[in-house]
Amino acid sequence: MIKAVGLDLDDTLYDRNQVYERTLQAMEQDVVTTGVSFQEFNEVFQEESQIEFQKFTKGLKGETTFKIDRVLSTYQRLGHPLKYEQALKFNELYLYHKKQIELRPGMAKLIDYLRSIGMELFVLTNGAAATQASKLQYLGVDKQIPVEKSFISDEIGVAKPNREIFNVVEDSLGLAGSEILYIGDHYENDILGCMKNDWAAVYYNVNEESVEDENVVQFSSDQQVYEYVKSLV
């Protein structure tokens, strides 16, 4: 029996790509013109973000440094190296557009429904503590899910898919893994991480990646996720 439902943050609760696309558009208009498409930019940027985030997680870099370095390395790989000041401008533009984020409609309905039936809710996300907490505030999730039920990798000291972070959530909630359902958009970190810890998982496959695993429940729209979870609990 499901007694708690967990939610990933980035790309699950809101469209992170929209923030980066608006940031790139502003960079192209006001800072540096590359002519690079958002799809090409984002593919490289996400790869560099993962590389730099791992360095941050291991304590090799601070938050400010890793966020600057992922921008510098992305533009370098794309053949348009930036000056340090231009990378700072990218992050300033990103912060501005991040404040405009909104819950995906299906996720907003899902949170409202789960709260209406008294289901315990929590957030489990990888990222820097202050950054992730601010996103929850911009989305208004901090008013719907208590701050003590928001589990951020930076505060815990390990990130998904490490088994320890799932154990921390279980201990905090006082539940077994089999009593938890989690919704996330990252196949390795979210879905495989859950399955290895006996959590039920819903793969919100926002990028419609090819995942041929009959054991994985997956949907490509937030409305589908809402309808499925509502029928399940």
Explain this structure:
Its cofactor is Mg(2+). It holds the Pfam family Hydrolase. It comes from Desemzia incerta. GO terms for molecular function: hydrolase activity. This protein is α/β, with parallel strands linked by helices. It has 2 domains: 4-15 and 101-232, 3-Layer(aba) Sandwich (Rossmann fold); 16-98, Orthogonal Bundle (DNA polymerase, domain 1), CATH 1.10.150. It is 53% helix and 11% strand. The chain contains 10 helices and 6 strands. The protein has a 6-stranded parallel sheet, sandwiched between helices. Helix 6 (129-139) links the parallel strand 2 (120-125) and strand 3. Helix 2 (38-57) runs antiparallel to helix 3 (63-77). The radius of gyration is 18 Å and the shape is globular. The model has no long low-confidence stretch (mean pLDDT 96).
CATH architecture name of the largest domain: 3-Layer(aba) Sandwich
Q: CATH superfamily assignment of the largest domain?
A: HAD superfamily/HAD-like
List the domain count as a whole number.
Answer: 2
Tally of separate helices: 10
CATH topology of the largest domain: Rossmann fold
User: Which CATH class of the largest domain applies here?
Assistant: Alpha Beta
SSE succession: EHHHHHEHEHHEHEEH
Please state roughly what percent of the residues sit in beta strands, choosing from under 5%, 5-15%, 15-25%, 25-35%, 35-45% or over 45%.
Answer: 5-15%
Estimate the mean pLDDT confidence.
96
Distance N to C terminus: 8 Å
Q: Specify Rg, calculated over alpha carbons.
A: 18 Å
- Strand order of the main beta sheet, please? 3-2-1-4-5-6
InterPro entries: HAD-like_hydrolase (IPR051400), HAD-like_sf (IPR036412), HAD-SF_hydro_IA (IPR006439), HAD_sf (IPR023214)
GO molecular function: hydrolase activity
Protein name: Putative hydrolase of the HAD superfamily
Pfam families: Hydrolase
